[in-house]
Specification:
There is one protein chain. This protein is an alpha+beta fold and 426 residues long. The protein folds into 2 domains: 122 residues, Fumarylacetoacetase, N-terminal domain (SH3 type barrels, Roll); 289 residues, Fumarylacetoacetate hydrolase, domain 2. Helices cover 17% and strands 26% of the residues. The protein has 10 helices and 26 strands. The strands form 7 sheets. Strands 6, 7, 8, 13, 14, 16, 17 and 22 form an 8-stranded mixed beta sheet that branches. A 5-stranded antiparallel beta sheet has the order 4-3-2-1-5. A 5-stranded mixed beta sheet has the order 9-26-25-20-21, with no helix packed on it. A hairpin with an 8-residue loop joins strand 10 and strand 11. The longest helix is centred in the N-terminal third of the chain and has 14 residues. It is globular. Bound molecules: calcium ion (CA). Calcium ion binds next to loops.
Length: 426
């Protein structure tokens, strides 16, 4: 079925600023609370939030097989379970309803008042109930940087790294939506030179610039998903900040990997941008040498050209841009990640979240964490207010923004932000 929603020539009768992340070609999905305290599934065009439950009730999705309450939910899980054909039909229909040439809703003031909200009148909620959360480690530049810092530059990558997308199982319960404040964690650390660990607030709080994809139900337990089928089961992507306490992480991570240094908070952006909307921005990923094993072999454009900008905004001060990176820098693709995740027969479920791992590029401005940007605190970042940062301070807000742009259209993710609050007294 054709993705008619992506037609770059289409214009909406709703006002959309030309630099908006949310033109009529985007049509992401999210969950929000209205001014009347009603939770609904919605989409966004320009600076308007659109209540899909209300649209459905008014008959605008007639002809599409949807249950009556499919959008009257506090998560997208049931809609995601309906599968790719339904996502596509709904996106195409929304594009049609808001097309400038279609008078049906445009000229029906009563309906418009029920369906359309200004963005500042709604509160965005976590879009999915996340059962399982995997975090990969798929940026070669990031793995090289971290490996060089903590081990040695000659052997920065472990022998498995070029053969499989390394990952670990993260904590789903502490994934929060953009705007949620993040509490500085307390825990054990081993300061260099100390003989025994100390307990207290993390001193090395960091962000990790990532993107994450969300799946639908796919394989039965025991069956794997062949790489060629993986994208049928991926609903869409969000921006993700995988907050990390480097001092906790350093002391605890051997031999089983990250634990409390990561599980205190992970922030995601509220609008899930579908793979369909990202289709025009597919691009080649990096060359893979040595060639991966056959179950991970992938042909053609495997990545997406998504620019991600990260700023730090100190309390009451303007923000400073600290990192500009791109999703296409990732060595392992989302298809390879999902094929690898399930090759052992592990089943994936609706609402599962898969982080890319920190996205770093080659040049210093494109590093995706303070650990790399300041090279473990040796080269502090200069802020516009005259202060310096080695890591993130209390009162700082970390803001990530991501978008794709070509000559015809801009498809963006909006913001993924979180403000750091001081630790609870231990
Ligand atoms: Ca991570």
């Amino acid at each position: 079925m054709k993705i008619t929603a992506n037609n770059p020539n289409r214009k909406s009768w709703l006002d959309v600023n030309k630099n908006s992340d949310f033109p009529i070609q985007n049509i992401p999905f999210g969950v929000f609370l209205t001014r009347d305290d009603i939770t609904t599934i919605g989409t966004r065009i320009g600076d308007y939030a659109i209540d899909l439950a209300a649209l459905h009730q008014l008959g605008y999705f007639e002809g599409i097989p949807l249950t009556d309450d499919i959008f009257m939910q506090d998560t997208l899980n049931d809609f995601i379970t309906d599968g790719r054909m339904t996502w596509r039909l709904v996106r195409n229909r929304i594009a049609d309803i808001f097309d400038e040439t279609n008078p049906k809703l445009r000229d029906q003031e009563k309906h418009r008042d029920t369906v359309i909200f200004e963005m500042d009148q709604v509160e965005m909620l976590l879009p999915v109930q996340i059962g399982d959360y995997t975090d990969f480690y798929s940026s070669k530049d990031h793995a090289m940087n971290v490996g060089s810092m903590f081990r040695d530059p000659e052997n920065a990558l472990f022998p498995n790294w070029l053969h499989l997308p390394v990952g670990y199982h993260g904590r789903a319960s502490s994934i929060v939506v953009s705007g949620t404040k993040v509490r500085r964690p307390v825990g054990q650390t081993m300061p260099s030179g100390a003989e025994s660990p100390v307990f207290g607030p993390s001193k090395l709080l960091d962000f990790e610039v990532e993107m994450a994809f969300i799946t639908t139900d796919a394989n039965k337990l025991g069956k794997s998903i062949p790489l060629s089928d993986t994208r049928d089961y991926i609903f869409g992507m969000v921006l993700m900040n995988d907050w990390s306490a480097r001092d906790l992480q350093k002391w605890e991570y051997v031999p089983l990997g990250p634990f409390l240094g990561k599980s205190f908070a992970t922030t995601i952006s509220p609008w899930i941008v579908t793979l369909d909307a990202l289709e025009p921005f597919k691009t080649k990923g990096p060359d893979q040498v040595p060639a991966p094993l056959p179950y991970l072999a992938e042909e053609g454009d495997s990545s997406y050209d998504i620019q991600i900008e990260t700023s730090i905004k100190p309390k009451k001060e303007e923000e400073t841009l600290v990192s500009v990176t791109n999703f296409k820098n990732l060595y392992w693709s989302i298809s390879q990640q999902l094929a690898h995740q399930t090759v052992n027969g592990c089943n994936v479920r609706t609402g599962d979240l898969y982080g890319s791992g920190t996205i770093s590029g080659k040049d210093k401005k494109s590093f995706g964490s303070m650990l790399e940007l300041t090279w473990a605190g040796k080269n502090p970042v200069k802020m516009n207010d005259g202060t310096e940062r080695k890591f993130i301070q209390n009162g700082d807000t970390v803001i990530m923004r991501g978008f794709c742009q070509n000559n015809e259209v801009r498809i963006g993710f909006g913001e993924c932000k979180g403000k750091v609050k001081k630790a609870y007294a231990p």
